[in-house]
Amino acid sequence: MNKIKGLLKNLFSNKKKSSTISFGLVIVAFIVMQILIRTGNVSSLIKSLLVPLCAYIVAALALNLTVGILGDLSLGQAGFMSVGGFTGVVVSAVLSNYIDSKLLILIIAIIVGTIVAALFGFLVGIPVLKLEGDYLAIVTLAFGQIIKSLIENLYIGIDSTGIKFSFVNDNTHLLADGKMIINGPSGVSGNLRLSSFEVGFVLILITLFIIYHLLESKSGRAILATRDNKIVALSVGIDTKKYKLMAFVISAALGGAAGVLYAMNYAAITPVKFDFNLSIMILVYVVLGGLGNLTGTIISTTILLLLPELLRGLSDYRMLIYAVILIAIMLITNNEKLKVILEKTKKSLTKKGAK
């Protein structure tokens, strides 16, 4: 009994340490970037990447909840981002006629986009989560492609009489004072650019708070038990379907919030931006950062997003160096000898600190 109590105590102490590191890393990075921006030591290229970086970090953290913590392989994150993103675009276009505060419009757009993405996650998760492994990955990938195709054929406009929806390229039903919000394959043009680095920073903190709070709760322990051994979890009365769906819906909702932040950073956005390549890229961020490792996800997303741009001066060799670095990271993170050395170093440092 004492051993079990000790294991539980170590487990929660490790989670608290991990959450402290994650929050501390994000806050320190934000402060450093603010100082660099105010002193003029950041290029316009890096400035333009800050909001997308925040969006990708939120999306990667959300996907880690499904892939790393729940243990199910999902490739539909781009689909949830597109649902949230284009919902946010429509909401902001409507609210701009009634609300002057850009920040308030963005907050409402993020909330609505998050709710709609969560609804899609719930509807998709009910049948999809009955599958496992490669089958689940294929179906979620298909969901992302279906959403992209639907938006490419969706036409939404607004005039003095209200919002008009259509799957036919015909804007004659709009009055003279009307305008198109989503114009099929052309996507959105003339979008309100409401996103900011500060809002992205707050959204990352909220995402970390939600995931860590979930992990430290009864539901989080049930999700981890479902991942580790589904049969044993069922034998002790855990409703595995319920908790799998809960994790999937939360992941979808946070992905939708990331999509709103991303979409509202550009004056023009097309459905092609949210194709399956985006899902694969976010999955790469999660895998390289470590499954279930939220701090690692933040670091890997930052490095892998900024690295190609920092290497842009090397022209033709840029992507070659990027690929070599990816392979090196994979080899290092999966090197058992290196893990043993790091673990021994960690134990020795802990003992010295205790003395």
Helix content: over 70%
Relative strand content: under 5%
Strand order of the largest sheet: 2-1-3
Radius of gyration, in Å, reads 22 Å
The rounded distance between the terminal residues' Cα atoms is: 28 Å
Class from secondary-structure proportions: mainly alpha
The major β-sheet equals: 3 strands, antiparallel
Number of strands: 3
Q: How many DSSP H or I helices? A: 13
Query: What overall geometry do the principal axes of the alpha carbons give?
Result: globular
The averaged pLDDT comes out at 83
Question: What is the H-and-E element order?
Answer: HHHHHEEEHHHHHHHH
Query: Which residues form runs of ≥5 with pLDDT under 50?
Result: 1-13
Kindly summarize this structure in a few lines.
With 355 residues, the protein is mostly helical. Helix content is 72%, strand content 4%.
What topology emerges from the helices and strands here?
Elements: H1 2-38, H2 44-70, H3 77-95, H4 102-128, H5 133-152, E1 155-159, E2 162-166, E3 179-183, H6 197-215, H7 218-228, H8 230-235, H9 240-263, H10 276-289, H11 294-310, H12 318-333, H13 336-354
Antiparallel strand pairs: 1-2, 1-3
Overview of the molecule:
With 355 residues, this protein is mainly alpha-helical. It has helices at 2-38, 44-70, 77-95, 102-128, 133-152, 197-215, 218-228, 230-235, 240-263, 276-289, 294-310, 318-333, 336-354, and strands at residues 155-159, 162-166, 179-183. α2 runs parallel beside α6, α4 (102-128) runs antiparallel to α9 (240-263) and α6 runs antiparallel to α9. 35% of the residues are buried.
